[in-house]
Amino acid sequence: MSLKANDPSRQTWLDLPDNTDFPIQNIPFGVFLTRDDIITIGTRIGDYAIDLGALHQLGYFKDIPLTDDIFLQDSLNDFIADGRKTWRAVRNRVAELFDVKNDELKSNTKDKETILFTLNEIEMQMPVQVGDYTDFYSSKEHATNVGKMFRDPDNALLPNWLHAPIGYHGRSSSIVPSGIPIHRPQGQKLPKGSDEPIFGPTRHLDFELEMAFITTASNVLGEPIPAAEAENYIFGMVLFNDWSARDLQKWEYQPLGPFLGKNFGCSISPWIVTLDALEPFRVEGPSPVKKLLPYLETIGKKSFDISLSVSIQPDKGEETTITKSNFKYMYWNMSQQLAHHTVNGCPVNSGDLMASGTISGPTPESYGSMLELSWNGSKPIKLKGGQERRFIEDNDTVILRGYCQNYEVRIGFGEVSTKILPIFKS
Ligand code: CA
User: Fold this and answer.
1) Which residues are catalytic?
2) Centre of ligand 1 from the C-alpha of residue 133, in Å
3) Are residues 297 and 245 in the same domain?
4) Is the C or the N end of the chain the one with fewer CB within 10 Å?
């Protein structure tokens, strides 16, 4: 099915703000609470949220085989499970309905009132019920920086890193959408020069600038997904902040890897941008340093040029952008990650979420965590207004943003914004 929704010349009859992340060529998917307290699946054009459940009830999707309640759900899991053909048909139809040349909905004031919401009338929810969450570690720059700090500067990358996309299984219960605050976690940590741990609030609270992809049901137990087919099973992407407590992490991570230093919270942007919408922004990723085993070989442009940034806004203070990176720096692409994840026969389900790992670029201004930006606290970052940060303080808000842009169109992810609250007190 053609990607008619991507036509860069298409214009909409809705008013669009300048430089919007959500032109008619984007058509992301999300879940929101309406002004009438109803949960629905929707999309967004400019600063309007569109109720797809109501559009379907009004008969605007009658030519697409969809169950009656496909959009009247509190998650996208069932819609995603319908597969790529359905996602494409719905995106194409939404593009057609909001096209400036189409009067069908534009001229129906009553229907427009039913399906259109301004952003302050709605509350975004988690777009999917995440069954399983995996976090990869796929930026060579990030893995090298962390290896230099925590292990051996001369052998920063472990020997397996260049041969396989390293990852670990995370915890889906603490993944929250943008706007939900997170408490500073407490735990065990080892004071400098001591042999015995103490218990207390993390002093090294950090963000990780990542993106994540969301899958459809992909395989059965035992069945690997070939790298060449992996993209068929990727619905779309979100911005992903993998909150980390570095002092807890450092004490606990050997021998089994990340645990309580990681699983207290992850924050995602609420609109899932489809892989289809990102099609014009394909690029080749870095060339492999080592010859890859055949199951990890991919052909063609499997990465995406997505500009990323992170800002810190202190309580009542001004926002400062502290880093700018790009998804295209990732050494391992999503097809390789999914092929590796399933090569042993591990099943992947609709609504599973796979995060990229911290996306650090080649220069210090493009590092994707405070750990790297402040080089483990040794080089404080200056904020507007004079404050400094080595790690994240209570009541700081951390905002990740991402977008793709060429001469014709801008496709963005909006933002994921999270305020850090002091430790939880019952
Ligand atoms: Ca991570």
Assistant:
1) 142
2) 11
3) yes
4) C
